[in-house]
Amino acid sequence: MAIREKAIKLLWSNAAGRCSFTDCKERLTVEQAAQSAPHTLGEMAHIKGKREGSNRYDKDQIGEQRDSYENLILLCPNHHTMIDKPENEGIYTVDVLMEMKIAHENNVSKKLEVSEISGIDALKDRIAIYLAENHQAWTQYGPLSETAQKNPHNDEIYAVWVSERLSTIVPNNRAIVSLLKAYRNLFSRSDQAIISQFLSHANSYEIWVNDEIPYQAVLRFPVDFERLITGT
């Protein structure tokens, strides 16, 4: 079986597009260099080996389990090679790799923890950082970016855009949602409709990650929300 789209989305978004190997955290999207197109370096490694004879192979697993999100860890090429060397099987066991994955994803989740905000301006400043990162991802890799316009129907460039949505936009949206849920009362009554629009937009992204709707069904980002936060 091939790795399903839902497993790919969960793996990339929960790891925030970074290598899950302890103390690595390498960003797994490569910027455009010279005349080459940007590309992804992320490799979805099997925790329990996929094929008989591979490291950590479990004969009791069925095909669907082998390619599930639970049996995958996002790694850079160097660490993927390292864990799969036969001589390293005793070092990088199933338990060790599971601990790495859980620890990394827990660190990513800490971004959602809301620290005390002193007021509306401090809240907007925090949210503005996430919006700026999302906007940069869209500008560099989105379908209207210069690279995408010059290379229509390029699978490699499209793959980078998918990885940016999962590794940058989805985690940032989750962080913004956490802040809004904790401090929505700081906004005026007239702003509440715009807040709701963003929350619906972010929720549709989550539904897409769970493979319940196609990306085309994700609600468009409400521009009024950015104006509310940045004042522009």
Short characterization:
The protein is mostly helical and 232 residues long. It is built from nine helices and four strands, in the order αβββαβααααααα.
Q: Please state the CA-atom Rg, rounded to the nearest Å.
A: 20 Å
Count of DSSP-assigned helices: 9
How are the strands of the biggest sheet laid out side by side? 1-2
Q: Give the N-terminus to C-terminus distance in angstroms.
A: 49 Å
Overall mean confidence score, pLDDT: 91
Going by helix content, strand content and strand pairing, the class is mainly alpha
Which percent range describes the beta-strand content? 5-15%
Low-confidence stretches: none
Q: What is the H-and-E element order? A: HEEEHEHHHHHHH
The figure for the number of domains is 2
Identify the overall geometry. globular
Q: How many E strands?
A: 4
Largest pleated sheet = 2 strands, antiparallel
Give a verbal description of the structure:
With 232 residues, the chain is mainly α. It has 2 domains: 5-110, no CATH class; 115-230. Helix content is 52%, strand content 5%. The protein has 9 helices and 4 strands, in the order αβββαβααααααα. It has helices at 5-14, 63-66, 77-84, 94-109, 120-141, 146-150, 155-183, 192-209, 223-230, and strands at 29-30, 39-40, 43-46, 72-75. The strands form 2 sheets. It has a two-stranded antiparallel sheet. Strands 3-4 form a two-stranded antiparallel sheet. Strand 1 (29-30) and strand 2 form a beta hairpin. Helix 7 crosses helix 8. The protein is globular and about 60 Å long. The mean pLDDT is 91.
